[in-house]
Design goal:
The chain is an alpha+beta fold. Among the domains are: 101 residues, no CATH class; 129 residues, no CATH class; 73 residues, Orthogonal Bundle (Arc Repressor Mutant, subunit A). The protein has 16 helices and 20 strands. Strands 16-17-5-19-20-18 form a six-stranded mixed sheet. Helix 4 crosses helix 12 and helix 13 packs across helix 14. The longest helix is centred in the middle third of the chain and has 16 residues. The chain is elongated, with a radius of gyration of 41 Å.
Length: 474
C-alpha cells in the first residue's frame, strides 16, 4: 500500500523560498544572513556578472534569440487536441432485442427458478447485439436517417449506406468466379505496384486498372481509406516486373447474377455494381423517421455524433437499468410470469414461472411438512444442507414445482411468504439435518437405577416415554 500511495508532496506548487521560513535564516560562524536564493555576497556577485540592458538581453533582462523574440527555457505546451463532436441531438430508448428476449422467456418457462429482474437486464446490457435502440431525432428536419434493409446498418449520409450495401451485400446477389484469359498484349513501359504488400496492379493506361486497385484495397487493406491506399502505389519500370505482371494477368474475375442460372452474361466488377445499384438499392435502402437498430450496429456507425449519443445512453442505463427493467417487466407480464420482491416491499424484484403459494404443513403428509418447515426455519440454504436422501430430494422438487418453496437461480431455497427471504444474511448452518435419523433403541435402565425423587416428579412416568419416541426438526 505504501508504494501505491499518492505522493501529495509532489503536488505542492509552493516555491522553495516560501517553504524555507520566508527565505531568511541566520547562519552560524560568519554573521552573514542567507536567503532562499543564497548569501548576500553570492547574490551581489551574480548581479555584477549580469550584462547591462541591450545586447543579447532586452529590457527587463529577458534573454533574446537572434531574431529578437524573447527566449524562455520553459518548454512549450503541446497543442490541444480537437474536442470530440457533440452527441447527436436525439432521444435514445433502450429495449431488449426480440430474439434475445425470446431466449430468456423460454428459459424462464422451462424451469421453476426465480431470477432477479435486474440481473436479466444486465445480461442483455452486457451483449450489445441483444439491445434494441429506438432513436428519435428531436428535430426531424435537422437529423434524417438512412438504413440498410438487409442488416440494419445506419447513417445520416445516404452514400455511407450505399457503399456499405455494395461492399457487404453484393455477394448476396452476384457470384464471383475466376476464369482464364489471354495475357495482355502491347508495349508496356511501367506497371503500378503497392509498396505495402508488393501486389502488382498493372499499367495505369489499361481499362481494368481502377478495378484492380479497388479490389486489392477492399480485400487486403479495408482498414484504410482509398486515398491513403492509393498513396502507397509506386511505378516500377524494370522488364522483369513488367513480365511478372503480364503472366499474373492470365486470370480474370467475373460476376454472374445468381438469378441467372445459365450464367450467360459474365460481368466485370463495375458492371455488377452498376446493375446492383439500379435494381436493388431502391428496395434495400430505407429512410425511417425513428431509427430501430441494435446497439452493436449503432456503435459501428460511421456517424460519430450518433455513436457518442448511443454511448451516453448506454452508460446511463448501466448505472441504473430502469428502461430495460420496465420493458422486461411488460414482456414477462404478457407471458403470465409471476413477480415478487424479496425481504421487504423495496427488496430485489424476482420473476418466475412458478405459481407461488404458502404451504399448509398442518394438513400435509409428515415427510413434506418436515422439508417445508425446515426450509422455513432455515431460509437461503443450498440443497445439500436440506436433503439427506433421494426421498428428501424428491419431496423438495415437488414442493418447488408446485410453488410451495422458492428455488432461487443461485441454488438456495426459501419458504413462500409475502416477501421470501433472500441474501447471505439468512444463510445459517442448520443445527440438525432436515429429517432426523431414527435413533437406535437404547436399553431401558433398570428401575432400581432410576432415582426415587425423579420418579415422583414424573408422576406416572409417561414423560420419559414420550421423550424417547419424539423426533426433532432442526
Amino acid at each position: 500500500m505504501e508504494n501505491n500511495a499518492l505522493n501529495l508532496g509532489a503536488l505542492d506548487f509552493t516555491p522553495d523560498w516560501a517553504r524555507k521560513d520566508a527565505g531568511v535564516k541566520v547562519s552560524s560562524g560568519n554573521g552573514s544572513r542567507t536567503s532562499g536564493f543564497g548569501t548576500r555576497d553570492e547574490n551581489r556577485d551574480r548581479r555584477q556578472d549580469r550584462p547591462a540592458g541591450g545586447g543579447e538581453r532586452g529590457a527587463g533582462n529577458r534573454p533574446r534569440e537572434k531574431g529578437g523574440k524573447p527566449h524562455f527555457d520553459r518548454p512549450r505546451r503541446p497543442e490541444r487536441m480537437a474536442p470530440p463532436p457533440k452527441p447527436l441531438d436525439v432521444e435514445v430508448r433502450i429495449l431488449p432485442e426480440q430474439k434475445a428476449l425470446g431466449v430468456i422467456i423460454r428459459r424462464l418457462q422451462s424451469d421453476f427458478h426465480a431470477y432477479k429482474l435486474k440481473d436479466l437486464a444486465y445480461f442483455l446490457l452486457d451483449n450489445p447485439e441483444s439491445i434494441l435502440l429506438k432513436i428519435t431525432p428531436k428535430d426531424p428536419e435537422a437529423v434524417k436517417f438512412c438504413q440498410c434493409g438487409a442488416c440494419g446498418f445506419a447513417s445520416t449520409d445516404e452514400q455511407d449506406v450505399i457503399a456499405h450495401l455494395v461492399g457487404e451485400h453484393l455477394g448476396d446477389y452476384y457470384a464471383e468466379e475466376t476464369i482464364d484469359c489471354e495475357p495482355p498484349k502491347g508495349n508496356f513501359t511501367a506497371v503500378a505496384r503497392c509498396n505495402l504488400g508488393g501486389e502488382l496492379l498493372g499499367p495505369t493506361n489499361i481499362h481494368e486498372f481502377n478495378s484492380v486497385v479497388k479490389a486489392v484495397w477492399r480485400e487486403k487493406y479495408p482498414q484504410m481509406g482509398e486515398e491513403e491506399f492509393r498513396s502507397h502505389i509506386e511505378m516500377v519500370r524494370d522488364a522483369e516486373t513488367i513480365e511478372a505482371w503480364r503472366q499474373s494477368a492470365t486470370k480474370k474475375r467475373v460476376y454472374f447474377a445468381k438469378s441467372d442460372t445459365e450464367k450467360a452474361k459474365p460481368l466485370t466488377r463495375e458492371q455488377a455494381e452498376g446493375e446492383f445499384k439500379r435494381v436493388m438499392l431502391a428496395q434495400m435502402v430505407s429512410r425511417p423517421k425513428v431509427l430501430s437498430i441494435t446497439a452493436d450496429k449503432a456503435l459501428n456507425s460511421p456517424v460519430k455524433p450518433l455513436v457518442y449519443a448511443v454511448k451516453d445512453a448506454l452508460r446511463t442505463e448501466e448505472r441504473a437499468p430502469y428502461n430495460m427493467c420496465f420493458a422486461l417487466r411488460g414482456a414477462f407480464h404478457s407471458r403470465k410470469l409471476k413477480f415478487f420482491r424479496a425481504n421487504d416491499p423495496r427488496g430485489p424484484e424476482f420473476v418466475t414461472s412458478a405459481d407461488l403459494k404458502e404451504f399448509d404443513s398442518a394438513h400435509a403428509i409428515p415427510e413434506l411438512a418436515q422439508i417445508a418447515d425446515f426450509v422455513k426455519e432455515h431460509p437461503c440454504l443450498p440443497k445439500a444442507d436440506i436433503v439427506k436422501s433421494p426421498e428428501d430430494e424428491k419431496h423438495l422438487n415437488w414442493l418447488v414445482s408446485t410453488g410451495h418453496i422458492v428455488a432461487f437461480v443461485n441454488g438456495v431455497f426459501s419458504a413462500v411468504e409475502k416477501h421470501p427471504k433472500y441474501g447471505p444474511q439468512y444463510q445459517k448452518r442448520p443445527v440438525a439435518p432436515a429429517v432426523a435419523e431414527k435413533p437406535a433403541e437404547a436399553e431401558k435402565p433398570a428401575e432400581a437405577e432410576v432415582p426415587a425423587q425423579a420418579a415422583e416428579e414424573s408422576g406416572n412416568g409417561e414423560q420419559g416415554t414420550a421423550n424417547e419416541d419424539s423426533t426433532q426438526l432442526a
